[in-house]
C-alpha cells in the first residue's frame, strides 16, 4: 500500500470488515469492476475474508452484498471521521489544543519588533522604519506575507542613497536591519567667488582680512555697497577669484531722539500682600490656596515655581507660589536734570537693543535738549564701532 | 487460420514497436522476488485464499499462483497486486 494513498484513506476514514459468504470470488470481482477502494484482502477460511474499505465505498459495497448474499461484520474503524467521533466528548479540549498550536505557530511567524542597527541619526532611523513598514516589515505582520529578505534589501538600497550595504534577516520574531552608511569625505563648504561690501555708511575703523584683497584703509568713508575686500587675488594680469573672508569694523553714526515726561507714574508697594499657591500636574494648573478675587485695586505679582526632579528626570509635578503685592500708583515729578539722565539711560538701552552684540558705543553726544510742555526732549548722537561687511557674490564671468 | 492471425499479430507488434501484451491481450506480470506480484490485464479472480490465487485470462486460460500468506494488497479493474510468499506461478491453457 503506497503511503500517500494510505493517508488519503485515513482522511476519508476506513473500516476493516469481515465478509461472510459462499461466493466470495464473485464478490471480489464485482468489487473490482465497481472500482471500490479496497485493499489488504485476506482469505481467512472457506467462507470468510477480511478486507479494508473506505467509508463511502463501504456503503456502495452493501448494495453488492445483497446481490451476492454475503454478510459483513465491522471489525475496526479507523481514520479521521471516527477519531473525531471518539473525541466528541472532549471536543473543547482538543479544539483548544489545536487552536493553541495554531496560535503558537502563527504568533511565532509574526514580526514582533524591528531592530535597526548602524544608523547614526535618529531621523534616518525613523525614515528607515517607515520604509520598512511600507514593505510590510512592521509589528503584527506575518513573515510569510513579507517579501524575501533579498528583495527587502534591494528595496531599502533603492530607497536610500546614503547606504553602502544593507543586511536584513530574522532572528525569531525580530526583524534585523543592518545598515552600513557611506562615509563620505568631508565636503568642504563650496565657496563661490565673492567680495565683501559695506552694509551701511561708515568710517572704516579697522579691518582683518582672512582671504582676499583689502580695498579700503582705516579712516576711509564708505557708502553702502562700496567694495571693502575684493575676492580677486594674485597678480593684476592673472587674477584668481576666491571668496573674500574677513571682518571690517567701521564707525557708524546713529541719532536717537527721546522724550521723557517730568510727571512720572510709579507703582509703590504698600506692604500688603497675599499668597496664592498652585500645584501643576502635567499640563494642568490647580489652585490649592488663595481663592477669591484679588482684593487690591492695583497690584504686582511675583511668582516662583518649584519643580521636583529625581536625577535627570523631572517629575510632572510642580509647585508655584504667587505673591500678590498691593501697589499704589504715585505720581512723582522729576527735576529736569533727573529727567535728562533718565532719558539718556533709556536712549542708551534702546540703542544697545538695536545693535549687534559685538558692537560697542564709543561716543555719545547730546545734540539737543529742550523742555517742552512738561516733557524733556533729547537728541543724542552715537558713534558705534561695528562689523559693516556683507558678502556679495560675484559671478565667475566678471 | 487462427495460427495465421496470431502470426500477423506478432509481426505487427514487432514492426509497430507496440508492447506484446497489448497486441496479444496477455497479462503483464511484474514480480519483486517472491514477495510481490503485480498482474495487469487479467479478467477476474476465480479463486482466492491465503495460499492460492487463480486469475482468469482473456484467452480463457488461467494464471495460477501458489504460496503462503497471500494478501491482495489492491484490486483495481484488470489489475491486481498480490503480496506474500509466492512459490509457484503457472499458466493453465484453456480447456486444461
Plain-language structure description:
- The complex is a heterodimer of chains A (398) and B (96).
- By secondary structure, chain A is an alpha+beta fold.
- Chain A contains eight helices and 24 strands.
- The relative contact order of chain A is 0.09.
- With 96 residues, chain B is an alpha+beta fold.
- In chain B, 21% of the residues lie in helices and 51% in strands.
- Chain B has two helices and six strands; from the N terminus they run H-H-E-E-E-E-E-E.
- The longest helix of chain B is centred in the first third of the chain and has 15 residues, at 2-16.
- The model of chain B has no long low-confidence stretch (mean pLDDT 86).
- At the A-B interface, helix 2 and strand 2 of A face strand 3 and strand 5 of B.
- Strand 2 of chain A pairs antiparallel with strand 5 of chain B.
| Whole-angstrom Rg of chain B | 15 Å
Helical element count of chain B?
A: 2
Share of helix among residues of chain B? 10-25%
Instruction: List unreliable stretches of 5+ residues of chain B.
Output: none
Structure class of chain B? alpha+beta
Helix and strand string of chain B, N-terminal first?
HHEEEEEE
DSSP summary, beta strand count of chain B: 6
The percentage of residues in β strands of chain B lies in over 45%
Distance between the termini of chain A: 96 Å
Pfam family, one (chain B): YabP
InterPro entries (chain B): Spore_YabP/YqfC (IPR022476), Spore_YqfC (IPR022477)
Organism (chain B): Caldalkalibacillus uzonensis
Protein name (chain B): Sporulation protein YqfC
Note the main attributes of this structure:
A: 398 residues; alpha+beta; five-stranded antiparallel sheet; four-stranded antiparallel sheet; 8 helices; 24 strands; B: 96 residues; six-stranded antiparallel sheet; Spore_YabP/YqfC (chain B); Sporulation protein YqfC (chain B); Spore_YqfC (chain B); membrane (chain A); transmembrane (chain A)
Amino acid at each position: 500500500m503506497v503511503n500517500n494513498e494510505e493517508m488519503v484513506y485515513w482522511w476519508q476514514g476506513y473500516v476493516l470488515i469481515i465478509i461472510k459468504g459462499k461466493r466470495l470470488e464473485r464478490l471480489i470481482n464485482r468489487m473490482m469492476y465497481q472500482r471500490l477502494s479496497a485493499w489488504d484482502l485476506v482469505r481467512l477460511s472457506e467462507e470468510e475474508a477480511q478486507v479494508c474499505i473506505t467509508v463511502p465505498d463501504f456503503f456502495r459495497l452493501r448494495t453488492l452484498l445483497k446481490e451476492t448474499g454475503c454478510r459483513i461484520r465491522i471489525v475496526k474503524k479507523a481514520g479521521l471521521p471516527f477519531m473525531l467521533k471518539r473525541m466528541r466528548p472532549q471536543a473543547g479540549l482538543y479544539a483548544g489544543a489545536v487552536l493553541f498550536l495554531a496560535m503558537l505557530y502563527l504568533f511565532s511567524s509574526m514580526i514582533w519588533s524591528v531592530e535597526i542597527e548602524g544608523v547614526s541619526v535618529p531621523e534616518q532611523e525613523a525614515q528607515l522604519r517607515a520604509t520598512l513598514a511600507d514593505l510590510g516589515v512592521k509589528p503584527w505582520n506575518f513573515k510569510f506575507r513579507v517579501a524575501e529578505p533579498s528583495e527587502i534589501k534591494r528595496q531599502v538600497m533603492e530607497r536610500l542613497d546614503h547606504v553602502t550595504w544593507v543586511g536584513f534577516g530574522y532572528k525569531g520574531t525580530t526583524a534585523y536591519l543592518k545598515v552600513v552608511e557611506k562615509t563620505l569625505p568631508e565636503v568642504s563648504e563650496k565657496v563661490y567667488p565673492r567680495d565683501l561690501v559695506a552694509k551701511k555708511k561708515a568710517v572704516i575703523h579697522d579691518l582683518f582680512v582672512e582671504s582676499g584683497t583689502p580695498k579700503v584703509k582705516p579712516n576711509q568713508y564708505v557708502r553702502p555697497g562700496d567694495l571693502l575686500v575684493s575676492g580677486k587675488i594674485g597678480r593684476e594680469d592673472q587674477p584668481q577669484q576666491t571668496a573674500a573672508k574677513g571682518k571690517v569694523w567701521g564707525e557708524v553714526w546713529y541719532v536717537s531722539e527721546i522724550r521723557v515726561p517730568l510727571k512720572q507714574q510709579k507703582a509703590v508697594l504698600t506692604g500688603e500682600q497675599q499668597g496664592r499657591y498652585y500645584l501643576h500636574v502635567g499640563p494642568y494648573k490647580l489652585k490649592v490656596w488663595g481663592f477669591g478675587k484679588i482684593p487690591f485695586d492695583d497690584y504686582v505679582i511675583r511668582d516662583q515655581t518649584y519643580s521636583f526632579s529625581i536625577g535627570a528626570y523631572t517629575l510632572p509635578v510642580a509647585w508655584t507660589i504667587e505673591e500678590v503685592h498691593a501697589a499704589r500708583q504715585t505720581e512723582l515729578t522729576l527735576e529736569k536734570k533727573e529727567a535728562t539722565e533718565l532719558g539718556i539711560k533709556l536712549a542708551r538701552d534702546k540703542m544697545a537693543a538695536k545693535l549687534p552684540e559685538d558692537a560697542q558705543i564709543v561716543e555719545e553726544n547730546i545734540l539737543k535738549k529742550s523742555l517742552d510742555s512738561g516733557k524733556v526732549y533729547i537728541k543724542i548722537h552715537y558713534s558705534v564701532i561695528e562689523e559693516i561687511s556683507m558678502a556679495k557674490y560675484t559671478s565667475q564671468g566678471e | 487460420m487462427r495460427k495465421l492471425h496470431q502470426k500477423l499479430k506478432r509481426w505487427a507488434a514487432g514492426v509497430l514497436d507496440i508492447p506484446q501484451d497489448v497486441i496479444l491481450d496477455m497479462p503483464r506480470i511484474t514480480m519483486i522476488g517472491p514477495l510481490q506480484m503485480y498482474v495487469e490485464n487479467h479478467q477476474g479472480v476465480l479463486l482466492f485464499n491465503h495460499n492460492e490465487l487463480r486469475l482468469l485470462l482473456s484467452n480463457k486460460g488461467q494464471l495460477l499462483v501458489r504460496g503462503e500468506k497471500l494478501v491482495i494488497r489492491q484490486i483495481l479493474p484488470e489489475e491486481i497486486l498480490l503480496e506474500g510468499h509466492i512459490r509457484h506461478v503457472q499458466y493453465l491453457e484453456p480447456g486444461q
